[in-house]
Amino acid sequence: MTLLITDEARVRTLTLDRPDALNAFNEELYDALADALIDAAADPAVAVVLLTGTGRAFSAGTDLLEMHRIATDPTFQRGRHGFPGLIDALEAFDKPLVCAVNGLGLGIGTTVLGFADLAFMSSTARLKCPFTSLGVAPEAASSYLLPRLVGRQDAAWMLLSAEWVSAQEALRMGLVWRVCEPDDLLAEAHRHAAVLASRPISSLVAVKRTMLAPLRDGIAAARELENAAFAELMGGPANLEALTAFAEGREADFTGM
Q: Keyword annotations for this protein (predicted)?
């Protein structure tokens, strides 16, 4: 099992549960989380979803070993939803989504915050958008959502540099709403989620839909551009060097690229 699902006070907690892989997303986990969001959206007993992770990571992003297989093995079987289907489910999810970033967050472990309505972060957690260090393009409409969330220059630094962002930096940027001590994180996030869940679902949905409506065209356009750039770069020289270096346990060498 790669995803734990629990319910309390109309809050459904979805916990990424691949701790040995730092909760990195393989095709199985993409499918499981997409299905869970679709199910939660349709369940009248669920008012709010709280997303977190087990172990020392929120999510290390895409499983790079599996990504290497996808890039080099034409027979690899993709999931039913995969990454695109998860982003579809996040974009369509019309109930409040609360994220509790318990540890390291890379790639989708950071860009998912663009779809969060409230984000809490452990004081010891760190975030990174590693796209340029992998020789690929942004994802999950982050090229559109992050500048709106944190401002153009902070977003540019995150997306261009592939450097770590601390919890305090994330709070200053507005990438997260609250920073908590590690032992307090989940309880604090759940407490706020329960406040939202005490409100009528119809009103919660109406508020979220009206807030998102002006953004939907921008999200769709960004995803189209990102997907085209990602398809062009994935499997290219820089991406293959990054993935090979990861598999071999060495630093990538982008000299001349």
A: Isomerase, Peroxisome
In whole angstroms, give the CA distance from residue 114 to residue 71. Answer: 27
DSSP designation for 62: B
Q: Cα separation of 131 and 137, whole Å?
A: 6
- As given in the structure block, the two tokens for residue 122 are 């452990």
Q: Is residue 122 helix, strand or coil?
A: strand
Domain ranges of the chain: 3-182
**DSSP code of residue 153:** H
Kindly give, in sequence order, each residue whose CB lies less than 8 Å from that of residue 1, ignoring residues fewer than 6 positions away: 17
Question: In the structure encoding, which two tokens stand for residue 130, read together?
Answer: 């590693």
pLDDT digits (tens, 9 = 90+) for 109-150: 999 999 999 999 999 999 999 999 999 999 999 999 999 999
Q: Which of 16-30, 77-91, 195-209 has the lowest mean pLDDT?
A: 77-91
The second-level CATH assignment, the architecture, of 3-182 is Alpha-Beta Complex (3.90)
pLDDT at 76 over 70: no
**CB count in 10 Å sphere of residue 45:** 9
